[in-house]
Amino acid sequence: MLMSRRHFLGLSALVTIQAIRSPATFAIQSDEVNRYRLVLKPEQKHWFDEAEDPIELWGFNVSELRLEQGKPVSIEVVNRLPVPTSVHWHGLRIPNNMDGVSGLTQQPIPAGGSFIYEFTPKDAGTFWAHSHHQTYEQLARGLYIPLIVEETPQQSFNQDITLTFDDWRINQQGQLDLETIGDLREWAHGGRVGNLITTNRELAPNYELYRGQPIRLRLINVANARIFQLQLPEAEVALIAKDGQPLRTPVSQSEPLILAPAERYDLVIHCDGDTSNRLSIGEIGRDEVIDIVTFDVLDADEDSSKVFIALPVNPLPAQPLGEPVVRHSITMSGGAMGSLRQATFKGEELSIDELIQQRQIWAFNGVANMPKEPIFTVNSGEVVEITLINDTRWPHSMHLHGHHFLADLNRYPEGAWHDTLVMASGEEARIRFVADAAGDWLIHCHMIEHQAGGMVSWFRVTA
Ligand code: C2O
Ligand code: CU
């Protein structure tokens, strides 16, 4: 049996208070291009007891990647894992051949090999980088890092704290449960949900916040499938960006915040004289709220001279609201309790039993997994409207590569741009974007077991 969450909650109390890790300095400056070296390799963590065997994970050699908006980068990715991999820069609008999707935009990087990614981040904001090869396994093992693109000039926050939320499946031996990776039953349900939550790869870490100053918190859901329902700190909190793109105006938020897989929000938080000395962010579970990160609130030595001013907008293509519009629709089907009876897989019409044999239980427009031909083709510069129909009994976290889009779902702040959005069972949404980036782009569910089980396709933007 899996250990209960309560057990882990007890353990997390043992974790000592940690100072905020300063971001790794590893940029080798040159005149034109910032060069980085990212090494993907095995990683060990002592989450429970220093005396016991460490937990074996996979990870990056740095805890965060910080780039500058508009500055060209050359990132050498070195694969020191025993298996092939690739790295996708989730949410960055970059050339198609740098998108890191193995099997679509590049060959996987072999074990022991390396690959150089070169691009210029157009947008400042909160993104993340993760494996895009055998993703359901490699993400579960920990192959991700937060990716922050800094505004130029930098914004006036006194503190800027990234919070990367994950959940892991730990077995009775206190190791990552590898046996259940690929469990088809989970693929057909809500995906792989872990029994141990970490923030920044630690158990309930503690950070210090200073009163009287605007503080930026960057929230990232990197879990395979968990939809976090977050109880926010009891202070003045406002949402200021979604998926790396600033909101038109800050939206104050005291209600729980839904953060689906791959979604990000930036918040600004103000603590004043009335704010308690101790704050937290909690994950709202079925019968209890678990603190997944805590904060000590301290008085600042000096009065802050900084005031929050709205984030500068990114150079997104003009608002895709005008006509003419190219329209397409994508109907999601399949999964447990669904009505999928047959689907096309690798060009063949298969019955549900045959699909299960192939581990394919989800489909877009009746096609399971990557079709030979794109699900739609549009011309560069066209305004595209896609109607997304969730004809399943499950929520899905829909992600479009290479483009940000607007959506008509009112659970989100008005006018928010997304690269990922969660859709409830039975829901329908219209999304709009300008297809301004030529190439073959993935569209998939980011509850990553659903992607593996068929919820993935691709579209072509012709030059
Ligand atoms: Cu986070 Cu296909 O990506
Ligand atoms: Cu899904």
What do these coordinates show?
There is one protein chain. With 463 residues, this protein is mainly β. The protein folds into 3 domains: 5-152, Cupredoxins -  blue copper proteins (Immunoglobulin-like, Sandwich); 160-298, Sandwich (Immunoglobulin-like); 326-462, Sandwich (Immunoglobulin-like), CATH 2.60.40. The protein is 6% helix and 43% strand. It contains 5 helices and 33 strands. The chain has helices at 5-12, 135-140, 184-188, 352-357, 448-452; strands spanning 34-45, 55-60, 65-68, 73-79, 87-90, 114-119, 125-131, 144-150, 159-168, 196-199, 206-210, 214-221, 228-231, 236-242, 245-252, 257-259, 264-270, 278-284, 289-298, 325-334, 342-345, 348-351, 362-364, 367-368, 377-379, 382-390, 396-400, 405-407, 417-418, 420-423, 428-435, 439-445, 456-462. It starts with a helix and ends with a strand. Copper (II) ion is lined by residues 396, 445, 447, 450, 455.
